[in-house]
Write a structure and sequence with these properties.
Mean pLDDT: 90
Number of domains: 1
Strand content: 15-25%
Distance between the termini: 60 Å
Largest sheet: 7 strands, mixed
CATH architecture: 3-Layer(aba) Sandwich
Structural class: alpha/beta
Bound molecules: S-adenosylmethionine
Number of strands: 7
Low-confidence stretches: none
Number of helices: 11
CATH topology: Rossmann fold
């Protein structure tokens, strides 16, 4: 009976990812009183082991995802916009590690943005504001680089978002897109990006790196979930959202029904 109930919970969560997503991310802000959850992606484990402060060590795999993405193009002295920045850990890491000119993180979770504005207020080249992915802020001359990590897959109009990114980037600017996807939807996604006008510079399959991170980091996440989830429903939901080993997304990565891709896209000059 119990496992049947848990199965129903999983079905509900997977049927309404968009609606439950924002509720889930607001809940994290509510429960995370010690500010421990500052990255929300599945993580990246590879050969490179980045150097982190003691305070950032628990974010290692989430930050390694950002490091991997950021190391693909030069960010030196660039104006960067991140859409779906969540709790800002990746934004903060990139802004201080890669000598960017300015970094603006936006998200449609107002509680996440409030958290970021307070927590990172001393980083001078880093700002956060509320924005929805289909109506992004503009800067004079356009942004040099747009970063989107594990976010666009739940947008109600992903192509509309790609069009918006194309508008706000300067000519020659880069769009670094990291997203999980059902394997059969990879080609349509790449075609959508080309139709919008982007040049596809590289597509990297980082599924093995993500699985490795999910494996290594699962104990730490399980203990956080135990700490934060007062009910069985919430515990199960958090396990599914975090792709804990044995849950839907993790199993699909293993079977390669889902893949996790990093795409480097450029607006033509
Ligand atoms: C899985 S989290 C990843 C957060 C962050 N990129 C990271 O890796 O830590 C996805 C984020 O996308 C945001 N998001 C989802 N839909 C959005 C939308 N339509 N506009 C802006 N942000 C959105 C969520 O609020 C959430 O913070």
């Amino acid at each position: 009976m119990e496992s049947y109930l848990l199965l129903i919970i999983e079905k509900i969560i997977l049927t309404f990812p968009r609606q439950l997503n924002s509720t889930f991310f607001n809940l994290i802000s509510f429960f995370d009183k010690d500010n421990q959850v500052r990255t929300l992606n599945y993580g990246f484990a590879g050969k490179l082991k980045i150097t982190l402060s003691k305070d950032e060590e628990s974010l290692r795999f989430g930050l390694q995802m950002y490091h991997h993405v950021a190391s693909k193009v030069s960010l030196n002295n660039k104006k960067i916009l991140e859409v779906g920045c969540g709790r800002g850990g990746g934004a903060s890491y990139i802004a201080k590690t890669f000598k960017v000119k300015s970094y603006l993180g936006v998200d449609f979770s107002s509680s996440a943005i409030k958290f970021c504005q307070k927590y990172y207020k001393n980083q001078k080249n880093l700002k956060f504001s509320f924005a929805e992915a289909h109506n992004l802020p503009r800067v004079r001359g356009g942004f040099d680089i747009l970063i989107n990590v594990e976010s666009s897959q739940t947008y109600h109009d992903e192509v509309g978002f790609f069009k918006e990114v194309f508008k706000i980037l300067k000519k020659g600017g880069y769009f670094l897109l990291v997203t999980p996807r059902a394997s059969e939807k990879v080609d349509p996604l790449i075609n959508d990006l080309k139709d919008v006008g982007f040049q596809v510079k590289n597509v990297e399959d980082i599924t093995p790196n993500v699985i490795k991170a999910l494996d290594i980091d699962s104990k730490r996440k399980a203990s956080l979930i135990r700490q934060y989830a007062p009910s069985r429903f919430l515990k199960k939901s958090m396990e599914i959202f975090s792709a804990m080993p044995g849950t839907y997304h993790y199993n699909n990565f293993k079977k390669r029904d889902f893949v996790y891709l990093l795409k480097i896209l450029q607006k033509p000059t």
